[in-house]
Specification:
Layout: E1 12-16, H1 20-35, E2 40-46, H2 82-89, H3 102-120, E3 124-130, E4 133-137, E5 145-149, E6 154-157, E7 159-162, H4 175-178, E8 182-183, H5 191-196, E9 200-204, H6 208-220, E10 225-230, H7 258-271, H8 277-283, H9 287-293, H10 296-305, H11 307-314, H12 319-330, E11 334-347, E12 350-357, E13 362-367, E14 369-372, H13 384-391, E15 411-413, E16 419-425, H14 431-434, H15 440-462
Parallel strand pairs: 1-2, 1-7, 2-3, 7-16, 8-14, 9-10, 9-14, 10-11
Antiparallel strand pairs: 4-5, 5-6, 11-12, 12-13, 15-16
Helix pairs in contact: 1-3, 1-15, 6-12
Domain FAD-dependent urate hydroxylase HpyO/Asp monooxygenase CreE-like FAD/NAD(P)-binding: 14-166
Organism: Thermobispora bispora (strain ATCC 19993 / DSM 43833 / CBS 139.67 / JCM 10125 / KCTC 9307 / NBRC 14880 / R51)
Protein name: FAD-dependent urate hydroxylase HpyO/Asp monooxygenase CreE-like FAD/NAD(P)-binding domain-containing protein
């Protein structure tokens, strides 16, 4: 791609990733461009050309529902009814407590982006680029950052946002033995069609992605059976509807120990008559601050021993999905196993999967599909873009190696710990720093806060080009 700023000589902000993080960042930038009369070109780069829907909302299966109710999923923190009003304009009779299909929410994000583009004219412009960002080149302190794409083209920008979302799952050791019957990423284009053809499906992982895979496989074939395995064998808990009001947890000030936090949460649940959902919902807005108060060793201890228990209570199932999963289990069409996949052999079109349980005993399962739903990988697990960023010293992993190190405002830290003035991030790449950073309420707040900083960044690099309207404060 040619240098996009060449034609108009206006600031360019490149966003790597076209899912919710990238879309909401673009929307807030375009709104600022319009409200302050600031010319700007926003370039959103998406690997599969799924601008707006990204990975999370590209599903075509109507059984795949949001795991939060509609009144919590507006794109705008200051307008909680925005999603509901839009849904009613397209003929959906929805209440705030309803759980919309994810494909509908993808349409909503596309609408929000299209509206922002139309309203930003003539100041803000959007370019949608389909491609895989493979490397960033920073030639000097004043030159543009070049986003190199895997096809040999690139985009020059005054600032870059890494809005990569959750990275695909890391390859499982059995992938080679399973061959084409192994589905590495259920959200790759065409993957759901392959899952629908399976009569016996083994899913690695028992979280929300496994739920979606099980719903798709068993809906497509009345004889389909799903086996799901994980180390703990825990399933996400169902939502209560209507949800109880959040309940605060009494915590000490200052540095926090994991043991203190766990005791305080258990005490809050006990004092609330055993009702845990209200306690979890009361904790959620404070998780980034609580996470920062834990020492490094306690953070690691949480990830090793507590995280899975927190996740199944925090990321819950819509009632309809929970009811369907309960039905599948009672009818013998979904089996949840506690163990690890330790071997696979191919026999014609079938696979024999060896599962080793927590007690060391093994059992063989004959399946015709294996789906990796074990959760997002770390940037250190082979993602080319992050690997090259780290190697070039333009970024460094956070100390837990869950994502990218950054300052409070999302500026990426280089190898020496210095915040970049041109490379930023938000959403899942900040998991090591904030832990709670993957859901829409967190992402939309980060996008709204990041957009003014990006505008200041390109203003500093491009002055005096940014004269009309001034800059937001």
């Amino acid at each position: 791609m040619a240098k996009l700023r060449g034609e108009t000589d206006v600031p360019v902000i490149a966003i790597v990733g076209g899912g919710a993080s990238g879309t909401l960042t673009a929307v807030h930038l375009l709104r600022l461009s319009r409200s302050h009369g600031v010319p700007m070109r926003v370039v959103v780069i998406d690997r599969y050309g799924r601008h707006g829907v990204g990975q999370a909302y590209a599903t075509d299966d109507p059984l795949h529902l949001l795991n939060a109710c509609a009144d919590k999923m507006s794109a705008f923190p200051d307008d909680p009814g925005h999603l509901l009003r839009w849904a009613r304009t397209i003929g959906l009779e929805v209440a705030g407590s309803d759980f919309l299909p994810r494909q509908v929410y993808g349409r909503y994000l596309c609408h929000v982006l299209d509206t922002a583009v139309a309203e930003a004219w003539p100041y803000g412009r959007l370019a949608r680029v389909t491609g895989t960002a493979s490397e960033l080149h920073v030639p000097g302190p004043r030159g543009p950052v070049r986003v190199a794409l895997s096809d040999g083209t690139g985009v020059d920008a005054d600032a870059v946002v890494l809005a990569t979302g959750n990275l695909p799952t890391a390859d499982w050791p059995v992938a080679a033995a399973a061959g084409h019957r192994y589905i590495a990423d259920p959200w790759e284009p065409g993957a759901l069609g392959r899952i629908r053809g399976g009569r016996a499906v083994l899913v690695i992982g028992t979280g929300l992605t496994m739920i979606d895979v099980a719903l798709t496989a068993t809906r497509a074939r009345s004889d389909a059976v799903v086996h799901a395995i994980s180390r703990h064998g825990l399933l996400p808990r169902p939502h209560r509807c209507p949800p109880p009001a959040p309940v605060p947890t009494d915590l000490p000030d200052g540095p926090l120990r994991l043991a203190e936090l766990v005791r305080a949460v258990r005490r809050a649940v006990r004092d609330n008559g055993g009702e845990w959902q209200a306690v979890v919902d009361g904790l959620r807005p404070h998780i980034p601050r609580l996470w920062a108060r834990l020492g490094h060793d306690d953070q690691r201890r949480f990830l090793r021993s507590v995280a899975r228990y927190w996740e199944v209570h925090r990321h819950r199932l819509p009632p309809a999905a929970a009811a369907r999963i309960a039905e599948l289990r009672s009818s013998g069409r979904l089996h949840v196993l506690r163990g690890t996949l330790t071997g696979v052999t191919a026999e014609g079109e079938l696979l024999t999967a060896r599962v080793t349980g927590a007690n060391g005993r093994t059992r063989d399962l004959v399946v015709d599909r294996i789906v990796n739903a074990s959760g997002p990988s770390s940037p250190l697990s082979g993602n080319p873009l992050y690997r090259r960023l780290f190697a070039a010293g333009l970024a460094r992993p956070d100390r837990l190696h869950l994502g990218v190190d950054a300052d409070e405002d999302g500026a990426v830290l280089d190898a020496t710990g210095r915040p970049s003035d041109r490379i930023f991030t938000l959403g899942p790449p900040l998991r090591g720093l904030r832990y709670e950073t993957t859901a829409i309420p967190e992402i939309r707040a980060q996008a709204a806060a990041l957009a003014p900083r990006l505008l200041e960044t390109v203003a500093a690099a491009s002055s005096p080009r940014l004269q009309p309207g001034g800059l937001p404060r």
